[in-house]
Amino acid sequence: MAQLAVNVVAKDQAVWSGEAKIVSAPAADGEIGILAGHLPILSVLNAGHVRITEVSGNKLDFTITGGFMSVDDDQVNIVADKVTLNTPAGA
């Protein structure tokens, strides 16, 4: 199964890096979902949530303050001013 190499970066530090099945993010034109094989894009991101499903099936949720996302050759880079990893309820 094809997968994505994903990097989530805040302006002052790397926040998360790993392999994923899907990434969804709050693009300026609306929510965008990225799967392996997606065409290259560069998109402005609004404040909101970035959701990542790891290859293992584990789901991650990040709150971002806005930034941008680039996708090229199954490599996804998300850069935001501020990124917070949200912990699931009960964790």
From TrEMBL:
Tell me where it mainly resides: membrane
Per the record, membrane topology reads: Peripheral membrane protein
Compartments where located: Cell membrane
Q: Which domain of life is it from?
A: Bacteria
Short name of one Pfam family for this protein?
ATP-synt_DE_N
Q: Which InterPro entries match?
A: ATP_synth_F1_dsu/esu, ATP_synth_F1_dsu/esu_N, ATPsynth_dsu/esu_N
Family of the protein in this entry: Belongs to the ATPase epsilon chain family.
Its recorded name reads: ATP synthase epsilon chain
Gene, per the UniProt record? atpC
